[in-house]
Amino acid sequence: MTNKPLGLLTIGNVVNASIRLYSSNFGRYFRLSLYAHLWLFIPIYGWARYFSESALISRLCFGELTGQPESNPEARTQVNKKFWSFLFLAFGIGIRIFLVYLGFYALVVAVAFTAISLLSDAGIVAGVIIGLFIFAIFILSAIVVVGLISRWFVAELPLAVETGFNPNKSMERSWQLTKTSISRIQGIVLVAFLVTIPVQSVTGVVPQFALIAFDPSTSTYWVIYAISLIFSLGGGALVMPFWQAIKAVVYFDLRNRREGIDLQLRDRL
Amino acid sequence: MRFFNQVTLSTPESVELEFTLAGIGNRALALMIDYLVLGTILIAVLFTWGILSIQIPESITEQIFPWLFALTLLGIFFIYVGYFVFFETLWQGQTPGKRYVKIRVIQDSGKPIGILQATLRALLRPIDDTFSLGAIFIVFNSKEKRIGDLVAGTIVVQEERRINADKLAISDQAQAVANQLLEEANINALLPDDFGVIREYLKRRKDMEPNAKLELSRKLGKQIKDLINLETMPTQVGSDLFLEAIYLAYQQQK
Asked: For chain A, first and last CA: distance in Å?
């Protein structure tokens, strides 16, 4: 069977292809994801392991997309060369977003304090204007943070699939590739999230409701608490490969759009 | 590995039609858009209804309140069902959301749906929406049918992407180079697949990164040059112009 090129993908088809990737390799990816989640219980090393195993799943997905599938050990050898980098990358992105948030927070506090000291007796109108201003800053901060998350959405991928990348370079690469696709990525994330709702409602929300029904002083409560913990861990493990597949497909699609990596003339001999 | 779910339908005239199923991603996006539109309509209607009902004297309102309330609920239900029935019937299986996402509901036989199928789908929609039952059905059913689709005998497919050949921007000098190539080189050696790659490149190049674009066009140009046994590249012709000329020459070859 000829391998029909995927072409450029629409928002819905990015999600479809990711589901297809995951369901075709379900046992394999889910097992990797489950072990990765168990590693989370061990500080530092376990966390690094979690991030590198997640990157491994993305790498496996990318291999399928480019028609060069790898086995787990093959892919792990490559990913483990940068074992700690994935933790640093996650940390680097986290801290930047946190700082931006902090900056906005400081701005709101500064505005509020100046306003109070200057306009202590200015009345309702001034109060309303200041309130609106602070509200506007909140909206702006949400837009900026969501924008940043979109720009770094595929930052794991260069690190996981290419050679010669470090966390900073990988973030730059993601920044550059996503330049013209910010709203598309947000659309993809929104639809992907909608699709995971059935899973999350079973594994996350239902156990919470069960907990409300019981009294924390009884032992039943703690049994259900343990069950709900296992459920949410299982739910996390179930959903994670899907998101890793989404990232791989988005990265693949962005490179097709921006660099045409899929435009190859056939080898003829 | 196949990334999309294909179905082949054979019509009574024994013509085989191949469709790509819409998939949960497209359907979720379409539904989200439809619910936004529907929500806006409902808010507008309820707002108008609210203003109108204030005009009724209070003495009357007290007596008929349960009726008004029931009427409102019934109205909401009719708008909800009516929205999907109206658009899917009028636009042959499309709603505003589906139109935006470029998917369409068709019958299992490949025929366009009518008011009967649209109504069955719309009436079963509340059940499909409960606990995301429909989404679960779509993921696990081989033809991606939610309960409404199973009852109405319908499937949801992607619309064929039309290739707009005429929309490609080709520079003026390309024709002259193409004429030269037709004489000097063996354009016949190019296969439809090669042509497809060139066309795809010309279609996408405007969104590419300048450096990556240059590198790709040079690589493709060099490969094409070998394929068509061209001795030397025409002078003063950049790789982009060369590929444009190839694109024209391929279509004009005898």
From this structure: 19
